């Protein structure tokens, strides 16, 4: 009997064969199912919700959805229809949960045991935050953070700060941020943050606020628990607190998508070793592949168009493999020479695992 859980109704349109359903709010893309055309198909993109997602009835008319903007010279509230008249940009950017790869840390940190599939490369369309801010006379002096607030209805009887999805990122992140109403050429699905989503490219998943209702430029980081104590790089055994680094930018990282360790033995002969590599904040310069756990490295070939520094690159290494066991490792280097780390510091909640050692995969060739 199959023990596979069904897709929850709010994402029933996802391709269930491609997904690993950890819980109704944590749904991962299978390693081999991210597709091979750079952009992750929307029906295979992972899902992570810290609060139950709003329903279509909660949202109503998507063009009438309101965003208030504060901490600027002329604070203003815009509808999505207004924003659509203020600018137009399209950008490819990787969306990756802060906890992607948590299940590959050796120490069993708490939280969903994501492998590689809490990530995707997505085309986002919307208006640049900087254009909206310009129209409002610029950011007020003294502001150091950009704070976005999710539009979920909050459960009654609980301190809102304990549950609201509200995140602050350094003001500089505003430069390339987008208020997006479209994803992969379609209106932003509700499950992915429609009617309007804040995209902060280069920053991990949690900073990309879905159903955003407020964008504020602030002197301080929000007091919301998800910022104050949550998503902190806490030492193992310690609780999160504001003195610890916040989970903000991602790191250079790569992994193989094929052969997938879950797809059984591979036939000896010519094998295409494929994967994806992100530079996080910079373009990918090269990816090296090792078949012996990092003793020897060979350059892979980058495949397909370069969609900019916030996208990922596909890579392939075509190899003639004899029968045997191989420990396959991949290591990305960015344009300025930043190399994917060998080891990531394990932390209490298992955030930001970008270690090539922990992402190495044993494959059997028969
Ligand atoms: N937003 C909101 N509003 N809410 C929630 O819950 N989550 C986070 C982001 N944003 C949220 C938000 C997270 S956490 C993540 S990853 C992301 O989102 C996801 O996305 P999608 O679309 O995939 O679902 Mo981790 O770091």
Structural summary, described in words:
It contains five helices and 21 strands. The strands form five sheets. The chain has a five-stranded mixed beta sheet. Strands 6, 7, 10, 11 and 12 form a five-stranded antiparallel beta sheet that branches. The protein has two domains: 9-228, Oxidoreductase, molybdopterin-binding domain (Sulfite Oxidase, Chain A, domain 2, Alpha-Beta Complex), CATH 3.90.420; 253-365, Immunoglobulin-like. With 366 residues, the protein is mainly β. The radius of gyration is 21 Å and the shape is globular. The protein binds (molybdopterin-S,S)-OXO-molybdenum. The site of (molybdopterin-S,S)-OXO-molybdenum has 23 residues, from strand 3. Residues 45-51, 95, 97-99, 150, 152, 165, 192-193, 204-206, 208-211 line the site of (molybdopterin-S,S)-OXO-molybdenum.
Relevant CATH superfamily of the largest domain = Oxidoreductase, molybdopterin-binding domain
**Can you give the helix content as a percent range?**
under 10%
Taken from the alpha-carbon principal axes, the silhouette is globular
The CATH C-level name of the largest domain is Alpha Beta
Helix count, DSSP H or I runs of 4 or more residues: 5
Record the strand order, biggest sheet.
Answer: 5-4-13-8-9
Question: How is this structure best summarized?
Answer:
This protein has 366 residues and is mainly beta. The chain has helices at 56-59, 80-84, 129-135, 160-163, 225-228; strands spanning 19-23, 26-29, 47-48, 66-70, 76-79, 89-96, 119-128, 145-150, 166-170, 178-183, 186-187, 197-199, 212-218, 253-258, 269-278, 284-290, 298-299, 301-303, 312-321, 324-334, 361-365. The longest helix is centred in the middle third of the chain and has 7 residues, at 129-135.
């Amino acid at each position: 009997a199959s023990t596979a859980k069904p897709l929850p109704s709010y994402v029933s349109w996802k391709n269930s064969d491609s997904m690993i359903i950890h819980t109704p709010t944590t749904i991962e893309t299978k390693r081999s199912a991210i597709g091979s055309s750079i952009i992750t198909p929307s029906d295979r993109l992972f899902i992570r919700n810290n609060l139950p997602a709003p329903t279509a009835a909660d949202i109503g008319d998507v063009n009438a959805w309101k965003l208030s903007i504060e901490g600027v010279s002329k604070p203003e509230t815009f509808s999505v229809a207004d924003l659509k008249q203020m600018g137009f940009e399209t950008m490819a950017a990787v969306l990756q949960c802060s906890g992607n790869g948590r299940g590959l840390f050796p120490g069993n940190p708490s939280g969903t045991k994501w492998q590689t599939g809490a990530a995707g490369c997505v085309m986002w369309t919307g208006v640049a935050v900087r254009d909206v801010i310009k129209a409002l006379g610029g950011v007020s002096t003294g502001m150091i953070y950009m704070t976005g607030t999710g539009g979920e209805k909050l459960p009654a009887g609980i301190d809102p700060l304990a549950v609201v999805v509200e995140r602050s990122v350094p003001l500089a992140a505003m430069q390339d941020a987008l208020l997006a109403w479209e994803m992969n050429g379609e209106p932003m699905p509700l499950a992915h943050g429609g009617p309007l989503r804040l995209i902060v490219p280069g920053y991990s998943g949690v900073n990309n606020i879905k159903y955003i209702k407020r964008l504020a430029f602030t002197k301080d980081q929000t007091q919301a628990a998800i910022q104050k104590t949550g998503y902190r790089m806490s030492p193992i055994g310690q609780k999160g607190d504001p003195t610890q680094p916040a989970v903000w930018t991602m790191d250079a990282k790569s992994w193989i998508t094929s052969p997938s360790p879950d797809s059984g033995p591979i036939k000896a002969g010519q094998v295409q070793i494929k994967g994806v590599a992100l530079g996080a904040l910079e373009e990918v310069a090269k990816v090296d592949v090792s078949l012996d756990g990092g003793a020897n490295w060979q350059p892979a070939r980058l495949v397909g168009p370069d969609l900019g520094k916030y996208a990922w690159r596909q890579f392939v290494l075509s190899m003639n493999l004899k029968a045997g066991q191989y420990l396959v490792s991949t290591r990305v280097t960015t344009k300025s020479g930043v190399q994917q780390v060998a080891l990531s510091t394990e932390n209490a909640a298992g955030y930001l695992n970008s270690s090539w050692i922990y992402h190495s995969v044993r494959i059997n060739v028969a």
